[in-house]
């Protein structure tokens, strides 16, 4: 036996579930897009930080090498003058 009122209620429930499912899928899609955008931004920031860190480390290394060379030159100069003055 066919119950039209029950059938309408079932169809209405199916439509409601379908709508809720579509809303949930849209929300999940938006959440995923936001997470992907945030991850991309974080990767960009991390890459920038790493680039800046590498540049600063390279500059520091160059200064260390320059200072070491200046130290060696000063020590040689001091040794030369000590030798000229007869100081051991």
UniProtKB/TrEMBL annotation:
Descriptive protein name: Remorin C-terminal domain-containing protein
Family membership: Belongs to the remorin family.
Origin organism lineage: Eukaryota, Viridiplantae, Streptophyta, Embryophyta, Tracheophyta
Record-annotated membrane-spanning stretches: none
PANTHER family according to UniProt: OS02G0117200 PROTEIN, REMORIN 1.4
Domain Remorin C-terminal: from-to ranges: 17-70
Pfam families the record matches: Remorin_C
Alphabetical list of InterPro entries matching this protein: Remorin_C (IPR005516)
Superkingdom of origin: Eukaryota
């Amino acid at each position: 036996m066919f119950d039209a009122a029950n059938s309408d209620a079932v169809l209405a429930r199916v439509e409601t579930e379908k709508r809720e499912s579509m809303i949930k899928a849209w929300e999940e899609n938006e959440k995923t897009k936001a997470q992907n955008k945030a991850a991309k931004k974080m990767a960009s920031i991390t890459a920038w930080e790493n680039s800046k860190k590498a540049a600063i480390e390279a500059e520091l290394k160059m200064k260390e090498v320059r200072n070491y060379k200046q130290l060696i030159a000063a020590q040689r100069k001091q040794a030369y003058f000590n030798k000229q003055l007869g100081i051991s």
